Amino acid sequence: MVDLRLPSLRWAEPPEGPVLVLLDQTRLPAEEVELSVTDVPGLVEAIRSLVVRGAPLLGVTGAYGVALAAARGYDVAEAARSLAEARPTAVNLAYGVRRAVAAYDAAGGSGERAAAAALAEARALHREDVEDSERMAAFGRELLGELLPGGRYRLLTHCNTGALVSMGDGTAFAVARAAHLAGELRRLWVDETRPLLQGARLTAWEAARAGMPYSVQVDGAAGSLFAAGEVDAVLVGADRIAADGSVANKVGTYGLSVLARHHGVPFVVVAPVSTVDLATADGAGIRIEQRSGHEVTELAPGVSVAPVGAQAYNPAFDVTPPELVTAIVTDRGVVSPVDHGALAEVCSRSRSYQSPSGNGMMGS
To answer: Which residue, among 294, 288, 295, has the nearest Cα to 315 in the 3D structure?
Structure first.
């Protein structure tokens, strides 16, 4: 049994050489299976196939991927390029890659010393992610208390944002879990999250293991929950946040934000500052990953739910404009109202923030 308090990714050094060991998220909840990856092409495939996924965890994975390439003597520059492009919407992936490459280059750009530096940077990012989760959970729970005095919240979440996407407790799910541990969670509504059911498969799995009161519903049922007054707040994560506060997250998030605004329900995004992309001005500049239509038209390979030859529109993400976001909870504080100035200011509080444009660090 895999303990969710342990990382979804770990570095191992068997006699035959270093490997990355991943919890295969495509096999959950039916099976808890680990996959050992020995090279960057294998890791890129694991990222694209969603064996490993989730914005913060992808950042850590990218950094460890560079360290793996360096330790095994592969071309680090080429490895970095392929890793950074494996999932283009998720800004954390390229962020982690850049940090490890910078450490590798600073240590000479070749040899054991440089490889050790890349690994040390990956481990540093790993530790930071654990700490970031703890801070976001605390900030988020405090914000819920301000927005919804009295506690006993009914929270709706989309996709998966728990320990499976992080080396800690995650992002949005970490806030819900903190509320649960404090006796403040009345119900967690879990969108099944089409097309890959990452809510039903993964968030429900995490909620069950944490002993949280939860219910899974089809994405299309969210509107009826709002109409019935059964949702007190929406908590979601993010894969990229543009400079103006536009939020790219799992497809279906934008619709939830519209419902929340119509019904007067707070819509809260939880993400570390490493997910903020100040180099992208607004949502129109965010590249949206398009996935295979088979994820929509088939329940499993060869098990169709649509006519043969049916065309499918399958964007992995959509973009929520900043005016529909009540607040963004980061590891450096809460941004509200959501705008360019407030986002830039919260990023400046982080020593490790690096613009996705590669223009260097911000802050002290």
So the answer is: 288
